[in-house]
Each structure stands twice: as C-alpha cells, then as structure tokens.
Amino acid sequence: MEHRKLRFALFGNIYQTKKSASIQKVLSCLSEHGAELYVDMEYYYFLKDNQRIDVNAAKIFTNDDFQADFVISMGGDGTFLKAASRVREKMIPILGVNMGRLGFLADVSPADIERCVEAIYQDDFSVENRALIKVETDGEPLEGYDCALNDVAILKRDTASMISIHASINGDHLTTYQADGLVVSTPTGSTAYSLSNGGPIIVPGTKVFSMTAVAPHSMNIRPIVLSDSSEITLTVESRSHNFLIAIDGRSEKCKEGTRLTLRRAPYDVKVVKRSGRRYFNTLREKMMWGEDAR
Fold this sequence. Notes:
This protein has helices spanning 20-32, 41-50, 77-87, 113-121, 193-196, 279-287; strands at 7-12, 36-40, 59-61, 70-75, 94-98, 125-130, 133-137, 147-148, 151-155, 163-169, 172-179, 181-185, 208-214, 224-227, 232-237, 242-247, 250-255, 260-264, 269-274. The longest helix has 13 residues, at 20-32. The protein is of the alpha+beta class. The strands form four sheets. A six-stranded antiparallel β-sheet has the order 8-7-18-15-10-11, with no helix packed on it. 38% of the residues are buried. The chain is built from six helices and 19 strands. The protein is globular and about 60 Å long. The active site is at residue 77. Keywords: ATP-binding, Cytoplasm, Kinase, NAD, NADP, Nucleotide-binding, Transferase.
C-alpha cells in the first residue's frame, strides 16, 4: 500500500546507551514507510558515533530550526519535556516512545512502535491538547524556555533556611508560604514533582492548575486547585537574597524580590495517543493501583 509522505523530527536521550536495538527498530519502521526524517544534531551524533547506527536523515537540525508533521521523542518523560520545549508554538503533535521506566507522557513501548506508526498513517490516533504555564519576570528575563508543560517550582538556594513566598491570585493576596519551595503544576505535571509533595492527581484536559508547598513550616498549608485562567503572582524573600526557579526541571537563579507572574500560555502542546489507550488505564498501571505486594 502506498503511503503519503510524512515528515518526522526525532529527539532522544543521549544517555541511554543500551537501547540501540529499540532505536534501530524505530528507524527501520520509519524508513519502510518512506518517512522523511529530521534528527536533532546532538541525538544524530550520539546515534552515529556512540551507537554506530547509520541514520538516513534528510536534515540535521539544532534548536527549533525544523518543521515536521510529527515529532518522536525517544526516552522518558524528561526527554519528552525537552522535545516539547523545542517544539514550542509550532503545535506539532509529539509521540513519546518510552525507553526508560515510568512514563506518563512517553507511554509507547518500543515493541509497539510499528503499530503506532502504522496507526499514524491510517489516521487511527487521537491528539490531546496539554496546557502550559508561562512565566514572566519584572527583572532580568529568564535565560531558558519560559513555559512549563509539567510544573514551575520556586525553591530555596544556598542555605538550609526556608524561603517566604508571597502569593496572589488575580491581584488578591492568597498567603505567604514559609517553606522550602512551591510547585505550580499543570494537570500533565500533577503526577510528577507536585505528587511527591502531596499534591492532587489531576486528569489531563481539566482546566485547572494546582499549587503545592514543598516542606511547609505550617501543617495548615494545603495544596490548592485553581482555574487555569487565573494569574498567579509570586515574590520571594530569602536569607541568601536569591532563589531558584525550575521550569520543567531546568533551574535558574533569580534575585530576591523578583516578581514572577504565572499564567496559561497562549498555545498548547499536542500529544499523540493511540486509539483505545485511556488515561485511567495508564494511571493504574504506572501507580500500581490494585497491586498486592504481599
């Protein structure tokens, strides 16, 4: 059967050195379908020099200098997040192939890649829109990508002392968090850092954000869920006169007093999902709900 020509941009984890068989399987599958392959430069040379894999790439690109019909992320959720930060507002659907262990975003196993690629050519898949949190500062601009698919974390730095985070919602004062930090999470990121700090699990597509303190001084502080149309304003006091802001795990130092404004980004990330794959099935599987460990 003759397939239409599709362009795929390939990203991957360069630290997974024992996955060459799975990578070769993906490349062979795309080649059999006549796909036009674009490869991130760092990943291309990892495959070529480290894995000794011959990659028939139509283009090798850096940064966000690419266009494609689909993006394939080879790795775990961290690799998926990095790919999303390169796709940005291009709105290219991303397929996550899970080369690691736990994966909510990268939920396609290498064994299923042929079926998934065939499903793409047969239009037998769905695309989910996932909200992003955009961060703005009133001081020096952030050096990296300013949007988070998972979460934005405000964290202490260089000292064992807590920080004070003054939080307002739509201009109304909420509270001052005395804590090691604060995690503002999307529904996508609710099963990541937020969950490890006692935050709620939020079903993707729910139009909310959550705010969860990291090791709060007061036991009265609890996570809060708010509409994703809200504008969140944060300012920080710290004994070290600086703090960290981590956007999907990419951290930068900020000066004390910097005003941070968080709101929903004007665009979403598109995630490719196999037909018949349900979020609650993934949740039960990844969280091992119902497993009897005895």
